[in-house]
Amino acid sequence: MVQRVVLAEPRGFCAGVEMAIKALIWMVRIFEPPVYCYHEIVHNEWVVRVFEKAGVVFVNEIEEVPPGLPVMLSAHGSAPQVALDATERAAIVIDSVCPLVTKVHHEVRRMSKEGYDILYIGHREHDEAVGTMAVSPDTITLVTPEEGLADFRPDNPRRVALLAQTTLGMHEWGAVHDQASEQFPHLWTARRSDLCYATTNRQSVVQKMAEYCDLILVVGSENSSNTQALVRVANEMGAEAHRINRADDISEDWLEGVATVGVTAGASAPEHLVQQVVDELSPRQGVDLAHVTDEDEYFPLPRQLRVFISVLGQTVEAGLTVPSSDWRHWRMNDRAWTATEALSRVTV
Questions:
Q1: How far is Cα 174 from Cα 194, in angstroms, rounded to an integer?
Q2: What does the pLDDT look like over 155-167, one tens digit per residue?
Q3: What positions carry a catalytic annotation?
Q4: Strands of 35-38's sheet, edge to edge?
Q5: pTM of the predicted model over 0.85
Q6: Structural domains of the chain sorted by starting position, each given as residue range(s) with its CATH number in brackets
């Protein structure tokens, strides 16, 4: 019998996920279905399923989008050619890329123009890594955390830059960074790590929980890189940890002899799934919090969408698409309007 549950703070949706989900909500409320989205909007199966029921079609190739229909590009960032092809094909294109991923894309362009060979730490075939690598394929080399620098040989050892996928584990970034710094003393890195604030915050609280929890459960989908990183961080700290999609995935064998269970969630996992896990565990002594920091980051809707909404404002308020009350509430209160609330509008 579980005696106590420790809930991580922060956990779940980050600012980039909040922005992307709300942006796609706008799309499905403004346009008649189907609305197309290049790649999963975020890496969470529950969120994707909700949008599919609302009329969103997720595609892996822009050519799958019928000409003249609206399309959204996912939060993970898209290759420049994908964005160009979408613009030529679709009636309207909204890019919901996380601003922190955009920052890395800018770094790739700048360092490439300055003649640097770029090392990019990432996971093969992850959407974010694929999009970033495509920004400057001739000057960038993928370095996986597992393989390290391998046989990387730059044209000029004094002009090597190190960038990273934003959802890596801190230890994965650190190990490759140390290796590269030793091999290339003039290594350039961003002033601040490319790892996003949500990634590092969630990993920090897991490190804290791993010191006293008998088991850590991480809510999130299998294809979520930052979710998988939380499991690896807990394991490296010596704690048993498992990724689960939902409460039904909890194995009774995991709970044998376990008194304290830590619960957290990846940056794309909805809060209600976390609460269902806590309810399933039903701790006899209640729930405590493991708090490391408060998050107040906010990313506004994509500029293309804000402009489009502004142009459509009078039409929308006239009742031809969404109700006036919804229009005014969403437009004026975007910072306070959460993705959780937005999703509830779709699922009711």
A1: 12
A2: 999 999 999 999 9
A3: 128
A4: 56-59, 35-38, 71-73, 93-95
A5: yes
A6: 4-12+197-291 (3.40.1010.20), 15-98+298-347 (3.40.50.11270), 100-189 (3.40.1010.20)
